[in-house]
């Protein structure tokens, strides 16, 4: 057991939260507004996506509506070394550790009366699939990681009057993690775990007039405890140990607006706050031994702003565009490089989205969208006492492309 705990204290202790790093909690994935870089999501409801984005906005849906979306998330993570030494002193930088991940979501909203509406949503705010390979210089920290999150939202809204509506949604989120590490050529480890947590989604919607609307949403934070197994492979001999890992999904507050300035042009905006200061450390517990390892994160809350537009080109075609900015959970990314980890180093995010909506008939429309995300160039300087240091920088970005279809019954 002593042989096992020594590498685990240095390596498996660094298991962290890639799906919930700021680079991959992408609200526009669930809210289906990547074409405007997240702008306006809490203020409008053009399909059934409000069952996820703002339950109060379901009051705008007049008939039973089904919405489905297919997306591809292309994540690029490129590491360049800058003087690593010790056990991190190899010559393989891991290439592009990112990958393309397919995503999908389904939404349904059904008005129950002129006051009440009910909605269901099956969606994800993101995930990560990262693979550096077993022979890159940081493989003792992480070789590969796959983390997927899926949320199920059941929501109701109540229309107080012609201007005000409120909504509440019950959220259940499943998170699944698979991580591998390679300590030496003949010694590796795999951690596989899952968790289900529950929360709420609150919404408020205010209709100033037909051309001006405001929306406010609050999503509760989720504290996952991923329970599973650590499997140690040593020269072909396997050993398995129970383990659990704490994982944070932050509380989110979002304020959005929609303003029809002319019969062709509309302005959309969003402001939001994410409670990332709750993510001060990651805690791994080895149940067999009772040993607990804390990994400092020291993150700050993040803030974001986005601005978008709709332009009605013809009666059937509408063009969309948006830009957005999100602060880093590490306020000074360079100075806090010792708090970065190769699961998914974080930095400021710049979003640029565009797309088009085609209204094929009164009962069917389709939206095409693409969004580019500049995930920054974070630096990493991780020191493992007695084992050396991993020192380098990243050049990270991502793209989302997809199609959304709305059916009205």
From TrEMBL:
<feature type="signal peptide">
    <location>
        <begin position="1"/>
        <end position="21"/>
    </location>
</feature>
<dbReference type="Pfam" id="PF03349">
    <property type="entry name" value="Toluene_X"/>
</dbReference>
<keyword id="KW-0812">Transmembrane</keyword>
<protein>
    <submittedName>
        <fullName>Outer membrane protein P1</fullName>
    </submittedName>
</protein>
<dbReference type="InterPro" id="IPR005017">
    <property type="entry name" value="OMPP1/FadL/TodX"/>
</dbReference>
<dbReference type="GO" id="GO:0009279">
    <property type="term" value="C:cell outer membrane"/>
</dbReference>
<keyword id="KW-1134">Transmembrane beta strand</keyword>
<comment type="similarity">
    <text>Belongs to the OmpP1/FadL family.</text>
</comment>
<keyword id="KW-0472">Membrane</keyword>
<keyword id="KW-0732">Signal</keyword>
<dbReference type="GO" id="GO:0015483">
    <property type="term" value="F:long-chain fatty acid transporting porin activity"/>
</dbReference>
<keyword id="KW-0998">Cell outer membrane</keyword>
